[in-house]
Amino acid sequence: MHDHELVEYLLALAIPRRDTKRLAKDLIGEFGGFSALLTANGDSLKNFPGIGETSAAALKIVQVTALRLIAEPMREKPILTSWQALLDYLRADMAHLINERVRVLHLDSKNRLIRDELVSEGSIDQSAIYTREVIKRALDLGSAAIIIVHNHPSGDSTPSRQDIAITKDICDAGRKLGIAVHDHIIIGKDGHTSFRSQGLI
For residues 55-76, b (16+ Cβ closer than 10 Å) or e, as one string? Predict the structure, then answer.
């Protein structure tokens, strides 16, 4: 099945007795692809001509279902032993976002996921993250380690100087309190960058 056919059949369930082929193609064209369509903001979907609340909800349900399916392996095992599952999950969730988001994955002493939290959401090119707030939350949750994740809506996952500086600050603060920073991962449409693999942590 082609991407537009999957969207077409999905929309046909939400909009009965209507030919949805043209609408499916227009949606994929407007949002820049199948993945970008599913990860699009709900309000943006609802405002598209021919798409109402029910159709937008159907598309978002597919996204949430896909994310749950991808996330299952990493929730059942220690994060560090299901690294590819984690990267697949983060890419599916964040690669096509139009605004920058920062999230922190909190891990227990066996590197199992305690909490996946959105820390901040910003503009198309920046989002705030504060060392004190990240470390305080880790202490509140009893996290043994954290993984910082954010996306670059530009598509380029290359770390900025600010990304490197804030990561160093969080690592230094965490080390003093026994909280390890396993990695900082930047997600972009072009792939991802791991600070650990780049020798930045």
Answer: bbebbbeebeebbeebbeebee
